[in-house]
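Suppose you are handed a protein chain with no further information: no name, no annotation, nothing but its sequence. What can you learn? This example shows the usual starting point.
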Amino acid sequence: MQPKVELIRHIPTNVITGFLGVGKTTAILHLLEHKPADERWAVLVNEFGQIGIDGQILQQEGVAIKELPGGCMCCAAGVSVQVGINALLANARPDRLLIEPTGIGHPKQIIKQLTRPPFDQTLDMRACITLIDPRHLDNPRYRENEYYREQLDIADVLVANKVDRCEDSDLAAFAQLVEARQPRASCQVSQGQLELAWLDLPHAGQQDAVSRSFLQADTTPETGMETEPVKLDAGESWRRLENRNGDFASCGWLFAEQLRFDYQKTNSLITAMSAERIKASLKTDQGNYLFNSIEGDLSVSARETPPENRIEIIMLGDPDWDKIEDALLSCLI
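A reasonable first move is to predict its three-dimensional structure. Written in structure tokens, the prediction is:
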């Protein structure tokens, strides 16, 4: 006789979305730092680049992390996404699931995927939270972008982030957006300081909770179907992986753990680079650092935990990745 598999109730699930560099990872990190101490949460991170970085940034006690790199999860192989989510839920058995989609993916399709079989019998969709930078509201490059528009369309909670950098005119534009969109809730914050209470607001169109059923979760997920994290082969010093979606191109590098970067050279290189987004978690001659550049606005923060040497760059057009790789290699000590 097969052992009885425990039935799991629908897991409260939130999608936290926003365009490149709006501060999704910082917002999720803030939520994790303030989660109830007696709850175990899981986070599914879907990054555009092939070299995942956000997963290691979010690592902390009581939180299970799963990365789905390489583009929008709604465009990935359906079975792989299904197996990945099922494995995360079965292994972690979380009290809540947070999903961070790539900023250049199709959030409407992601929501559709998560609210139909088999996920409709697994996940209890709660509020979708969309972060925006009010400074971009008058920029046609954002306003006319299909991903940006979809992120606004699915928002149950609309959050203006980075308001400490905004002018009064930016905040007035956000107020007009809220008036036009009429989300369930809205707020203006800095540093992604989301309220826990927003997570339990209902998602638009969700069914009456009384009508929902339970799911018999498989505690032995399928093998051979999951996206394995990128690792170096024996004797390999670095590996490079590329991706493209429309006008956006990404390239990521994973470097061997024993390598070190010259901090000053690396900082100067990233500062001078013209890119939509750069994230790097590197070991340097001055310590461990996270480099985060959004359209040339670079912030650098020290890390206590030794990171894997990873860097991910997103650019428009057809970048010369060979040239960029040569520049990165020149920063090695």
